[in-house]
Every structure is written in C-alpha cells, then in structure tokens.
Design brief:
Layout: E1 4-10, H1 17-29, E2 34-39, H2 53-63, E3 70-72, H3 75-78, H4 85-96, E4 101-107, H5 108-111, H6 123-126, E5 128-133, H7 146-153, E6 166-170, H8 178-187, H9 197-206, H10 209-218
Parallel strand pairs: 1-2, 1-4, 2-3, 4-5, 5-6
Helix pairs in contact: 2-10, 8-9
C-alpha cells in the first residue's frame, strides 16, 4: 500500500501544543500514515534559535513520545550550514521511493516567499505541497507573486499523486507562539523580580510537561530577557 508522508518543517523553538494540535489535524485532513517534524539546522531567513539543534530535536522527541503517527526527522540537523528544503526532500524521496505520496507542509506566510527559496521550482518535482491558512496570518488571496498565484490557481481538493500537486487547507487558529513562550520562559528566570504566576501558567498550559522539565534541566531561554 502506498505510503502517505507529511513533512512539517520549522525551528520549533520550543515546540508547543499548537504545533502538536496542527500536526494531528494535518494527519486527519491529508490522510497521512505519518507526519515528520523536521527541525532546521539554520534557517535561511531567520536569526539563530535560542536552543541548539540537538536540544530542539530532544524537545520534539519528548513532545511526540505518545503520538504514534508523529515522528521527528533530524536530517537537517545532521547537515552543516543553511537548511535548504529542496535538499531534504531529495533525500526523503530517495529514501521512500518514487511511489510514496510525500506532502511538504507550510503556512501561507512561508509560501508567500517560496519564490525566494533555493531551487524552489524543484520542490514540486520531489513532493506535493500543502499550504496552510490560519486566522490572523496572510491569506492565500493576498499573495501577489505571479508564479505563486499560478500554483494556487491549480490547487486540488485532494492529493493523490506522489508529487506535483498543491492543496490549500484552513486550520483552526492556535493562540500561542514560540516567541511568546520564549518571553514567558525568560521572565521566570528574572531573579530580581517576583515570580510571575501568569507567565508560569502560560508555560504549563501550552508546553508539554516533559518539555518544560527538559527546558528547566537544560536552563534554556534564560538569556532572552
């Protein structure tokens, strides 16, 4: 039976319940056998993460420990330098074979800059693409780049091919971000101020307990304040 594999890239700095909930929704909507979180080593367009590559991978592994259909792919962490998605998808395609249905997942914000990615036109030769829209983010309708608009115009309702198709999905919004959580974590380490119970509540509400324990043990995100 043909495998259906999702690839969900990002920094995951740190991973939180919003990521996990989105992944579960994507497994259902795309009829995936497995979804791989693929943390990047070094993002081409963003500053360096607060946690090291191995720490971000450890946190992801803890977060998905009880989720059989969610796994962690560390291939970009094993490569030095900037993480180019096209290289990763080439590896994944070689690994799973020509018949596997591979779906690379990205949000509309990231898709809006896809034409600036390394060898971006090769992505659809290696995989399908799922463009995810969320409330409060740039919508697909707001994208102006002509090549990207042409791709969106050809989108399908259901991905059936091994590669070359694009689907647009709308996911329920989640009300937290890694940026907010890093700030909350940093605030708890300000020794000259009283413990902020509201910040601690946010941390425990949106980050899995095993990941919180890891963050505390590794003393992560303390320098962000």
């Amino acid at each position: 039976m043909t495998q259906r594999i999702g690839i969900f890239g990002g920094t995951f700095d740190p991973v939180h319940y919003g990521h996990i909930a989105s992944a579960k929704m994507l497994v259902a909507k795309l009829s995936l056998d497995v979804l791989y979180f693929m943390p990047c080593q070094q993002h081409p367009f963003r500053k360096h993460p607060g946690a090291s590559p191995s720490q971000r991978a450890d946190m992801l592994t803890l977060a998905v420990a009880d989720e059989a259909q969610l796994q962690v792919d560390e291939r970009e962490l094993r490569r030095d330098g900037i993480s180019y998605t096209v290289d990763s998808l080439q590896d994944i395609r070689s690994e799973f074979g020509e018949d596997a249905v591979i779906i690379f997942i990205l949000g509309t914000d990231a898709f809006a800059s896809l034409h600036q990615w390394e060898r971006w036109q090769s992505l659809l030769l290696l995989s399908n693409v799922a463009v995810i829209e969320r409330a409060g983010q740039q919508t697909a309708a707001q994208i102006t780049e002509s090549a990207l608009k042409a791709l969106l115009a050809q989108s399908v309702t259901t991905i059936n091919a091994s590669h070359g198709e694009l689907v647009q999905l709308v996911l329920e919004p989640y009300i937290i971000s890694s940026t907010v959580l890093r700030s909350a974590l940093a605030a708890t380490y300000q020794v000259d101020s009283k413990v902020d119970e509201a910040q601690i509540k946010v941390i425990h509400e949106f980050i899995p307990a095993s990941v919180v324990q890891y963050i505390e043990a590794q003393q992560l995100y303390q320098s962000n304040h």
